[in-house]
């Protein structure tokens, strides 16, 4: 089936999804499409995805292409052609028999990633996991030594306006299954009312569920302007040398922010902040905690995360995957027993009430008269 639609192009997928419209063809440059990127494109309801990189390189079994295929979104890798130099936003193209046509000219050759092809590529990638794991461990241990200040307490934690002392804190990262896990802990959020910290796009995740973040922390590359304006406090994650590209964006919105220079990931420093400011409990949703997570983020190790979890572990509860632990179901017999339990005290009360007993006797007499008994 031919696909005819306008295109939107960006080498950064997370930048593209903020402006792509339903029905557009997404043209990206994203090696090993990860789960978060795939879900973002699915939510925008694109008609197809053309990747100018390898969607599955074979380095590890990344989840993105499978999600796109399952959502019935055609995904293609470019075999020949330079779409970023030929096309611009809004240009209408035709995808026909794994070729791209623009203004009646063939401009690229594609490889369609069907379910069979995706499975073949993922199976091949599985065989590379052991090699990748060895590299990942070596890199983690090397950087753990360099970043040990996370544990030794030499990192300077900035002062903040939000009081976290003896409070429960919920740290939300827009990671795998974050929607389902947030749904699962909604009763906890509504009852305990923890301090809400959104890590970049995690702030928008909280907004999705009707909660306003108390703090947004991160490099500001995936959080919306709406969320930044709504939250109560902004903390910009800077490089250890103090350079903070995200601060410029905050200033352009005429907002104020606190700078937090630190190595590691933004979710690491969110947990460190909560721990240092005296949080009684830290509940984490959607965080990254395994090799696949970090490879999908383009990181070759997880030294800072390993060290941070060593430090804050006594106060940390990771809610990731909690939605998969138990799925309750209401059966017909449960409803019957519930109705029976509710009616029992009513029947007993009525049976010992004298007016009710008199009424029953009167009805019986009327009944016997009608029957001529």
TrEMBL record:
Keywords: ATP-binding, Kinase, Membrane, Nucleotide-binding, Transferase, Transmembrane, Transmembrane helix. Residues 193-233 form the Thiamin pyrophosphokinase catalytic domain. InterPro entries: Put_SteA-like, SteA-like_C, TPK_catalytic, TPK_catalytic_sf. It holds the Pfam family SteA-like_C. The chain crosses the membrane at residues 335-356. Residues 320-370 form the SteA-like C-terminal domain. The keyword NAD does not apply. The keyword Membrane applies. It comes from the Bacteria. This is Thiamin pyrophosphokinase. It comes from Clostridium formicaceticum.
């Amino acid at each position: 089936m031919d696909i005819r639609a306008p295109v939107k192009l960006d080498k950064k997928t997370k930048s593209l999804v903020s402006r792509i419209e339903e029905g557009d063809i997404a043209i990206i440059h994203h090696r090993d499409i990860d789960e978060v990127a795939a879900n973002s494109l699915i939510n925008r309801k694109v008609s197809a995805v053309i990747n100018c990189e390898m969607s599955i390189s074979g380095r590890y079994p990344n989840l993105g292409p499978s999600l796109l295929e399952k959502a019935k979104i055609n995904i293609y890798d470019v075999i020949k052609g330079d779409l970023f130099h030929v096309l611009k936003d809004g240009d209408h193209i035709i995808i026909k028999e794994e070729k791209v046509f623009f203004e009646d000219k063939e401009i690229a050759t594609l490889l369609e990633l069907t379910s069979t092809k995706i499975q073949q590529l993922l199976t091949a990638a599985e065989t590379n996991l052991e090699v990748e794991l060895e590299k990942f461990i070596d890199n983690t241990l090397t950087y753990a030594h360099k970043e040990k200040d996370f544990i030794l307490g030499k990192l300077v934690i900035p002062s903040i306006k939000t009081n976290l002392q003896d409070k429960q804190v919920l740290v939300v990262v827009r990671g795998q299954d974050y929607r389902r896990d947030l749904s699962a802990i909604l009763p906890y959020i509504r009852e305990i009312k923890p301090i809400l910290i959104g890590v970049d796009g995690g702030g928008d995740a909280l907004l999705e569920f009707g909660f306003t973040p108390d703090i947004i922390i991160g490099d500001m590359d995936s959080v919306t302007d709406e969320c930044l304006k709504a939250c109560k406090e902004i903390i910009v994650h800077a490089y250890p040398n103090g350079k903070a590209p995200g601060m410029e964006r905050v200033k352009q919105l005429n907002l104020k922010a606190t700078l937090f220079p630190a190595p590691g990931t933004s979710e690491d420093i969110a947990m460190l902040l909560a721990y240092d400011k005296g949080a009684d409990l830290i509940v984490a949703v959607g965080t990254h905690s395994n090799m696949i997570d970090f490879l999908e983020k383009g990181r070759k190790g997880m030294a800072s995360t390993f060290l941070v979890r060593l430090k804050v572990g006594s106060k940390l509860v990771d809610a990731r995957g909690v939605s998969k632990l138990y799925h309750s179901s209401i059966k017909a017999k449960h409803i019957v027993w519930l109705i029976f339990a509710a009616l029992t005290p009513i029947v007993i009360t009525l049976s010992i009430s004298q007016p009710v007993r008199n009424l029953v006797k009167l009805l019986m007499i009327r009944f016997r008269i009608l029957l001529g008994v």
